[in-house]
Amino acid sequence: MTVHDPVLAAAHRTPDAQARKPIPDDAAMLRAAAELTRTLSTANPAIYWPDFLASALLGYAALAGAVLFDSTALAVISGLVAMLALYRAASFIHELTHIREGALPGFRFAWNLLVGIPLMIPSFMYEEVHTQHHARTRYGTANDPEYLPLALMKPWSLPLFIIVAALAPIGLILRFGVLTPLSVLIPSLRQKVVAEFSALSINPAYRRRAPEGNFARQWAWQEAGACVFALALVGSVFAFGWKPLLIYMAVHSGMTVINQLRTLVAHLWENEGDAMTVTAQYLDSVNVPPPSPLAAIWAPVGLRYHALHHLLPSVPYHGLSKAHRRLIATLEADSPYHRGNYKGMFPLVGKIARSTMTRR
Predict the structure, then answer these.
(1) Would residue 175 count as lying in a domain?
(2) Which one is predicted more confidently, 101 or 341?
(3) DSSP H or E segment with residue 322
(4) Which letter does DSSP use for residue 210 in this model?
(5) Quick check: bond before 316 cis, omega within 30?
(6) Position 214 in a domain
(7) pLDDT digits over 27-85, tens only?
C-alpha cells in the first residue's frame, strides 16, 4: 500500500554511479525457507476475521469519538487510536493480494465494504499490482510498480516522499469524486485514469493494463462505491459542517504517512534497475523482528517481516513470526538470512538518509 509520486522520478541518481556486483542465490537459505514452512501456508479464518473486524470496529468507534468529544485531549487521543486501528485494518489489503482463491470466502467483499471504500483505497488499486513487485524478473527494475532507488536519489526525495503521502486524502477524493465520473463520459480520459491513476504504486513510470473478466467486474463495483463515498464525503459539509470532514482527512493523512514511513524502511532501495536473484531481493528488503517494541504498530499484519515475505509470499501474516523463529534457529550464523534483520525504523531511516546525502 504505497503512494504514487511522479515528482520523485527527477531525483534519480546520476548515471555515472558505480555498478554493484550481482549477489548469487544462497541455496541453503532458500531450501530451508521452503522446507521449514510447508505447514504454515494456510490462511486461518479464525485469525483473519476477528483481527480485521476488531481493528475496523475500534477504528470507526474512535473516529466517531474524535468528532463528537468536546474535550480536545479526548478528541486527539481518539483520533490517534482511530488512525492506528484503521491503519491496521487497511493493511489487510496486502493480504488480499496473496490469499489463495477460495481460502477466505467473503473476506475481499467485506474488506472493501468496511474499509476499502470508506478509505477510498479499494482493493483493485493493489490487486494485480503488488504481485508484480514479487515477480522474479521485475523486482527492483523499471517495471516494478513498487520500487524506486530511494537510497540513491537526491536528499530532498525523502521528505517529498512523505509529504506526498500526507496529501493522499485530497488526491483520493479527486481520483474518485472527480476523475471517475468524468472518465465515464470521456473515453480518452478513462484510458489515462486506468493506466496512471488506478494503482497504489510509487514508480511514476508504471502503467497498468485495463482489467478483464471477473476482475473488471470487481473493479467496477469497487470504483463505483468509492466514487459515491467521495461525493458523499464532500457533500457531508453541507449537512454537518467542516469538522467531521477535516477530522476524517487528518486521521486518513496520518494513517497514510505512517504507511509511507513503513514503506520507506521496507527495503534498502539500493538497486538501480537490474534484475535480482531471490537472495539479492531478500537482502534489499527488511525484517524488524522482536524485540523491537513498536514494529507491530507501524508495520502491522506481518509487515515487520517484509524481507521474509519476499522469500515466502504465500505464507499468511500469522505464520511469519513462526517461520522467522524456525529459520533463525536453523540457519548458520553466516547465512544471508541474518543480515536481513534490523532493530527498528529510525536506524533504517538514518541509513537511507545518509546514503542520499552522497547524491548532491
Answers:
(1) yes
(2) 341
(3) helix 320-330
(4) P
(5) no
(6) yes
(7) 999 999 999 999 999 999 999 999 999 999 999 999 999 999 999 999 999 999 999 99
Q: What's the CA gap between 195 and 262, in Å, rounded?
A: 26
Compute how many other C-beta atoms are within 10 angstroms of the C-beta atom of residue 7.
13
Backbone φ and ψ of 82, nearest 5°? -60, -45
Domain with 151, as residue range(s), is 6-359
Cis geometry, peptide bond prior to residue 149 (ω within 30 degrees of 0): no
* Helices and strands of the chain, counted as H and E runs: 17, 0
Q: What is the value of pTM for the model shown?
A: 0.92
Between CA 271 and CA 267 the distance in angstroms is 10
Query: Where does residue 106 rank: exposed (0-12), middle (13-18), buried (19+ CB within 10 A)?
Result: exposed
Residue 191 has which C-alpha cell? 484510458
Number of domains in the chain: 1
Q: Is residue 1 a part of any domain in this protein?
A: no
**Of 311, 156, 172, 181, which Cα lies nearest the Cα of 255?**
172
Query: Is residue 185 included in any domain, yes or no?
Result: yes
